[in-house]
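Late entry, written up from scratch paper. The run itself happened at the end of the previous shift, but nothing got recorded in the book at the time, so transcribing now.
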Amino acid sequence: MVENQYDTGLDKNPANFVPLSPLSFLERSAAVYPGLPSTVYEGRTFTWAETYARCRRFASYLAGRGIGRGDTVAVMLPNIPAMNEVHFAVPMTGAILNTLNIRLEAASLAFMLDHGGAKVILVDPEFSAVIAAALALMTGPKPFVIDVDDAAFSGGERIGEIEYEAAVAAGDPGFVTVPPHDEWDAIALSYTSGTTGNPKGVVTHHRGAYLNAVSNILAGGLGQHPSYLWTLPMFHCNGWCFTWSVAAAAGVNVCLRKVDPARIFELIPKHGVTHMCGAPIVYNTLINAPGAPKGKAARPVVGLIAGAAPPVAVLEGAESIGIKLTHVYGLTETYGPAAVCAEQPGWDDLPGDQRAQLKRRQGVPYPLEEAITVLDPETMREVPRDGETVGEVMFRGNIVMKGYLKNEKATREAFAGGWFHTGDLGVLDEDGYVIIKDRSKDIIISGGENVSSLEVEDVLYKHPAVLFAAVVAKPDAKWGEVPCAFIELKDGARATEAEIIAFCREHIPGFKTPKAVVFGTIPKTSTGKIQKFLLRSQVNSAKAISA
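Output as recorded:
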């Protein structure tokens, strides 16, 4: 074997190789721009130096409680400064951050806390009741509870043993960060709606978080010192990694507890907002808000949009209020967006409807993602670029999860053939841009939230009058798509649409509850399998995805 001269005496060492981690972004911004604002919220401002010190203090407090490598810290928080801080403080200890969906019910939360083995949980008072109920339902050891009070919210109650600010004050601002041994070390745990059974725990790593944070800056044109408005929930894939992107760009986190159009239009000029993200429902709400600034009165903002292909009306409407939208696409398994509808020179000169059709595509790989394409799942060959041949959308690269926690079978299946299988069906157009046509998984995306149709069906089958149930996506002007339930009743049984919806609301969150119920005989194959494709066709499900 011939020795390679470029491998001899040229090994990795601490001087030339450091594991990639987004923790470095915070340290740098605090050192280089200590006096610049990092976070603004309800009249309070933190600088990058203050945020760094607060994160180190809280990390120190957690470490003092024995939290370290391999431990899980869960949070149930809205978009407040503490939610941004834990994205650094928790991994500073070597622990893994588990951001919980604030819209979930107690049973789902209890499963996640048990499954992830959370040692600590931070709770906003708005969610204290549901977390208390979740803790009661847990089967394993219960986490230590830290309350995070918010002066902007009235109500709820403390259920913890210490308040967040007290914990921060008790910590050491000189705490030394525990760096990852390897950039493959886990940084976060996020749960996604499973098509069967319980939600799956998506594990992501420091390397992917670092790379996707930088990809966001490149794809979204953040530049240096952006002012980023938090309309996207930080619990969604760690805010699509923008928690770390803003630190890398030494920008300002403009925190927002809930999406309120009047408040948003106040904050944009007040803080010079340059960027924001959200599902189509967010932008649709802003477009249709009374008093929305139009034309020259609107401050230009770059908006990233994902969750479903944005309708033409949303793309054009957003432009009318000063928001230029870029469509991105991804999943929890890809850290949020890992594909972008990259704009080409000349698009802005096209008529509005033509430009909008181009901008609705799911697009091409993120700058630091290796590939997104459409493959025949049987042959694993790329489909022709004809805009017609349907295959499965797949990703490959560093912005793909480690795998599913405690679920090796699902992990193997997701990575079969050396690609991550999204479950979305799509085509490649002549430009090589991906266009989604349908979803092969039983997932409905309503207002940016994943809804498992099988989970809803499980609830429906518990109703004493239901013989057969099937749930599919129905197009909706406000939410993009909503669950629509088809019900076949037992002989002699009766039920109304209102009764069925009320029954579901008792068992699952409102966003998962069917918004329409159709009674009648459900089409089945000769073997008794429900023919969902006929039901989807009946309510024009595909229109919500590809119209």
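The radius of gyration is 24 Å.
(Scratch paper discarded after transcription.)
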